[in-house]
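Objective 1b: paired records.
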Amino acid sequence: MKSKLSNTFSLLRLSIIAVLAVLCSSCDKTETTDSTGFILHYLGVTDIGPSMSYTLKAPTYKGSAPYDFTITNVTLNDETYSNEDNFVINAETGEITIQNTETMSAGLYNISVGCYSNGNFYNFKDAVQVNMLLAVPEGVTVEPAEVLVNQDEENWVEASAQVTTEKDKHVSITNYAIAQDESKPYLEYFSINNEGKITIKSGTTEQQLIAGESYTLSLKLTTKAGEHMYADAVTFKVVSKPRNLFYIEQESLPDLFEVQVEGKSVIPTIEGTKEGLKFAIKSVTPETNAFIIDETTGQISLPENHPLTESGTPYVFTITVENTYGSSDFEAVYSAKIVAFIEPIQPETFHYTAVDKLYQQGGSLENQLPDQGFIGGAPTFQFDESNSDEIKTQIAQNIISINSGTGAISIANNHTLAAKTHEIQVRVTNKKNEEGVVKALSVTVLKNPNSFTYVSWGTNIENEILIDPTKTNHISTTCSEATYSYNRNLFRFIHIRDVVDIPRQNTDNEGNSNFTYKIIKDNYIGNPNIINGANIDNRGTITFTKTNNGNFSGGGNYTGCVFQIEVTASGNGAPSVTKKIPIFISTPKVEKKNLTSGESPTTENQTLICTPFVVKANPKTGVCAPFNYKVYVINANANNPEGIQRNFCIKELPTDNLVWDYNSAYSYCNFDENSEHATGNNQTASTMLYQVWDNCGIVTKTDNSPMRFYDEKGNKDQGTKAGYINQSNQLYIDPTKWIGTDGKYPNGAMIGQMRFNVYGGTADLQTTNNVSVFPLIIWFDETYEGN
């Protein structure tokens, strides 16, 4: 396999492509497809300030090459924007230049892009987003502006900088954040706290922040006037003495030199600071002075007519490298052997046998060597620049790698190659053929027959809640197949009664796969009695431990539950595919409340019901799904000869004067593997909600205001909000607040306790004088575009 150091330098050379790849896999909103499989991906800009200019790199694509690019539409805060010359696109490459920003209004700009591919025109709505911020107030500085991070020191990750303001005469900063720029993936390794201290995140490694590189951060500062951009506020300059000197793969050593013929090694790569870099040969065994090293590049050579004769014993080198911050010795890092003749590369002997079956989702390729019979002394293999952007993307992520000494190609099982035939271009060179020969490994990628995007247990929320004064009917709990994916796997058991088994109903798997199921018990939010009593059999039927009257065993509160089922599809002679499918349980509260408004006292069991009760929200754009809401009075004491508590709806209350608001008890369940977005509540450090509270400038995490529309007096809360139920009784999400310190958006679900009043009284809405419910679950998904 290719050495780790060699892989690191390959990754650095193609870092921009790597960033594009991440976006391609995570942001469905910037792509479209047709029968030809054409997809276009742009790298989005998030934050920018006035007087700044920015050139957005040309997009990557899958399918026929795009051409004739044009900007089809620009909006500012969802209103049409007259573009003029602020956004200019290169018709040939698709590069977008953002310019003349001095007088541009602050807000979120969405740029739609059109192009042709294979004679067809495609329009990509909101392909790029630009968040234009205000200029930073005068008097704000960062000290120091350049932070020296010496990785030779044990505590190098403790390096920091501090935002400062002119005391006593400067506007106060209410929130600090690192401005997001998706072309800078290193931003995820830095954070800034509520006091303006900029630090490297604990746990960051030398492989993530690389010695010899500088990392520049811009800041987003919030004052009462709005959000401000402090461009290029601080640079973290990472340094170290020389480390990890690398010539060629160890298994391809020794290098070969011919008798009396001039020869040179490859120019090595080295990690560490490049300032004052100098190479020297410390020792050669067997001892000789014939070899020369270029002290600037580290290239080792023998001059023409050198005195060394053919020998079976290689010369082994120890190289000393120094820079501004120290020196290091690299023992046995290179070896060379003198031979009578180096065989030139014979092009007709270099080829790969095609790989006709590499599955998506789990398929891998290990050490695919060139065919036997290759002729060429001391060859060096490397990927050629003629590779497609899709192949370059996988190379940049070290998903596709090559052994430079043997030519063996490997493809990791997390590859994202499209289902088609790919040509991986490889160039082989040696001292007799420096131009090299290029041949391709042909790899045919197939759709994995075990792939699936969903498993459905249906839903029971689409059944009407019956209003039956005679109490001859009851609320139906029958589960049926959900037509739409955003209402799938939602189950509501009114007053935590009538709990039923839930059989698996459907999946889009097309391979007749074998399925296995496992309930994930250690990652959930809500009532622990639900998850603790949940089981699933080999047919996929979810069962719950229940009491005689149909309640969840152990009873419980009214929070409901969100958990995941790990589903694995296997068989078909292909790699298995595993996904985690979220399940949502709602258990609306049964509790009598003494509600009084004017002349309307009641002790009715009022219940606020939302359909659907899971609301999709895009944390990146703020787009939220609509939902309906009703308030029912439910009889919780209906007799039933079967011993099962049926919940009859006595009546439906008018909602013309309904007011409701979040109150407390927020918690978040993470659906992906991002450890930076941990499951938990807003008061627990490292959780996603804790970071959202930070983004709202909340120091005391017991403060519940970031999701509340009203304050304790019933007036509109003027604090910074992450989201709330607006005055139209729909969900609002502020996309600037739902981003983690790693620069990534949440993929998971949030619940929170709410209180409501059907009489329109906002005063004391946050007190226990009103009904407490958990009627909504917010599902954050940055690929969501709307129902």
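Objective 1b, second protein:
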Amino acid sequence: MLVKCFHCGLHVAPQHNYHTNVLGKRQSFCCPGCCAVADAIVNNGLEDYYHYRSEFAEKASENEDELLQKLKVFDDDSILQEFVESQDDASEIQLTISGINCAACGWLIEKQLAKLNGIMKVGVNVSARRASVTWNNQQLKLSQILSHIDKIGYHAKPFQPEQHEATFRQENKAFLKRLGLAGLMTMQVMMLNVGAFFDLFGHIDPQTKQYFNWISLLLTTPVIVYSASEFYTSAIRGLRAHTFNMDVPIVLALGITYISGVFATAQNTGQTYFESLCMFVFLLLVSRYLEHSARYKAAQASANMLEYMPTTATLIEGDVLTPVLAKSLKVQQLVLVKAGELVPVDGIIIQGQGQLDQAMLTGEFDLISKYTGDQVLAGSLNQLGTLTVRVTASLQHSTLNQISKLQTQAMSTKPRIASLADRFSQYFVVVVLLISCISYVVWQQIDSSQALWVMVAVLIATCPCALGLATPSALSCAIANLNSKGVLLKRGDALEQITLVDWIGLDKTGTLTEGKFTITQCINPSKQPDSDYLEIAASIEQYSSHPIARAFSLYESPFTVTDFQSEMGKGVSGIIEGIFYKLGAASFMDIPVPNSMSACNVFLQSDNGLLCGFLLTDKLRPKGTALINALKPYNVNLISGDIAPIVKSVAAELGINNWLAEQSPKDKLQTIKDAQSNNHVVLMVGDGINDGPVLAQADVSITLGAGSDLAKSSADIVLLDNELVKLQTIFSIAARCKTKIKQNIGWAIGYNLLILPLAVMGLLSPWMAVLGMSLSSLIVVVNSTRLLK
């Protein structure tokens, strides 16, 4: 007789029969690997895995040493830099895991990895067959993690973004299979039962009706077993986590109705509701498929970015052009970008000019002219011209990749109202279960033949699916709408806080102005030529990344600077030919600024005293006045580190009544704290270069520009196209999102409060309850999708 391996299900050859005790019995295994996996599972107290699994596991590796040697390649620095995010001793990686068949697999992987010394956090997404693992890289190596996963019968490798879209398609295909089967069977069962119920086939004798019941049972079973399978796994996961999720009453209703139908059919007595069962599963899958589609549509901004993730590039090495993988490019290498090609990485144009389409980054479809010295971003499409680009960041650290990660991060953060709804739905499920049990007991006294169906009607009609969908469906659609307009949210709960904002702080330089300074005046009391001081200033500023430094970049910088220092919000300093120089604001100078230089905003000082003053001016961004007019209902404040005359001039031009000048980062921070202490909800808009503390302190913060390091920025929202008028869009969509969430929650709670008494009173049959619950969920999803417009 053929014996199957208890672990992987393969046939066991007589000469390779290995044994160990599992679940209190002596089991057979096909190889030492499977036997060792079973031993590990039993010895670690995880034997319940074999109770919960729905399919056999993959065959385990036989040679552990050989496997570990093979996996050591993943400890290579180049692999780690590409796939692993590290901060201090903590490393994080996304893994694709093959062999995951059910929730039990995810549970087993999480429990086994958690036992490894050095593992900090593990999360397994069963449906996506992915795992997120965080570990201490001083205690554990990636190869050891992969080896440990392999030892328990699964195979893991680093997740690659290009698989993202394929995962969505795979989930969509599985959804359609379950939905299609449920729909097909529902039509057949409905036809049989409705025909018999309304006597459409003429007089039907009891034997024929019994035959119809058996056919209905046969057709309903695949719907219950296959189409409804995700409800069972979800309910089991919830119960295992000691919570009652919304799928618990669904599973109870399905189980009770199906089992009672089986007994009624077998004993040829009582009532069956096979048509209601099929319709229930079908309509529930329809509503969840619409939710899945809405989420998929909402995730298109991220998915589209991943589709635009460049795969190849043309590397320039001397006179040789070599096709290479975009992810292999390193900083300072040169690449050629021809017309019609995607820019492979973030970089600077060193030769050529072009017309670039950056719609997938900024939401703006107008072509942007780029010239020598301009920055280009990975994923931009070069429509016209040929560019030579110097790489400034690898593909992994490109703006495109960071945006994609931050969008996923934003979708995972919940606003307060969502957390409240989740907690309420859990308690509501418990209440529903209690009421259904009480209804059953009461109806046993009133009419025992109806007791079971009243309980089922209560379970189905009051299932809080709509409540569970209310917030996430609206939030995902709102975030998607903002993404399509070039607005990147880094945390989803920022949308909720924006609706409470009543105090707005605006930085001037780089925010209300373009941040492109020009030197319009040099006040020089000495006989030294202005050009000498400009060369000294340019030599020092060449080491700075502040926008002011760009104004001096037009001048020659012939001097070597040592001991360069930069002080946030004040200025820079350095030693040139043994002389110590300071360049910056008046507050940075060691001596008072004379009245003759009061019109200047940048000063140069040496060991011998104040040398000269420069007046740097900046252009206002377009549509700034229109923006300030739109923000009139709010308390708008201009907060700048620039000198008073310039700040006052900008405030007057834009129509801002409240302004503060010569504010250091510390002063700005105190201003925000003072506003918050007066019970204001503060929104701060800054350029993200030296406003980090202020942006972090504000209740909601917005920064401009896709060129900065988005992942490390303190802001909650990034305007990728630098268009300040998008503030109006953010306020508008945030208000609409809040309204939709309130509408959804109001409808969900109102429906349940209305339907519950009707179900308890026995006025609803199970099929009516099915229609009501499904319609409630559909209304919520459709209402949320209006936010996409």
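The chain has a mean pLDDT of 77. The longest strand covers residues 90-98.
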